[in-house]
Amino acid sequence: MMYSVFRIGRTTKCLQHILKRVLVRLPLQTSALRPVFQTNRCPASKWTFYHTRSLYTGVHFCSRNDGKGTDQVPVSRSSHTPPSPSAAQKVKQAGKDFTYLIVVLIGLSVTGGLLYVVFQELFSSSSPSKIYGQAFERCRSHPEVIGAFGEPIKGFGETSRRGRRQQVSHVEYMKDGLKYMRLKFYIEGSEPGLRGTVNSESKENPETGKYEFRYIFVDIDTYPRRTIVIEDNR
Fold it and tell me: Coiled-coil stretches, from where to where (predicted)?
């Protein structure tokens, strides 16, 4: 028992020394430190043994940092703001932006022009492709052409040196304030080695703005030469 009290006294002094080292405020005196004992009784013995299990101080530890004995990592918060661009830099950036704008506008203009040309070529009633389709349809359905070439009849443009068939050749010109267009293309049928040359001319109608055929002729490449008149409005 005396040994336990002696050990508690040493523990109290050590704890008080530690509290002084870490600068802890104690709301109570050292006498407030009281041990908590746990009693264990052996069933086969008359003696009671006391063992010190913990030490209750009744205080709350308050940490106070005076900058001694501790490592502090300084955190710097920079209030430095980036410098504003100079007048020369602003002018240079404005020049770049203007150049990009010009490039974008040129690209849009070129794209718009290409779309307009494609639309006029494919969907306009006055385009050479549209007039070629109308002329070929009249040739393909004509009885004399069917009898001479056989079915099916197909049309194509000029043939290049590499054997590729190009677009239908056409010529546009003005006469008496009106637009004219001449077409030339070729047709073939099931008859081997027989080919025909189609020549047509159309004139713009001033009231409707559409082209109307003046004539459509089919020249058969035979000897003697033979011509089939599909339409003649001259």
Answer: none
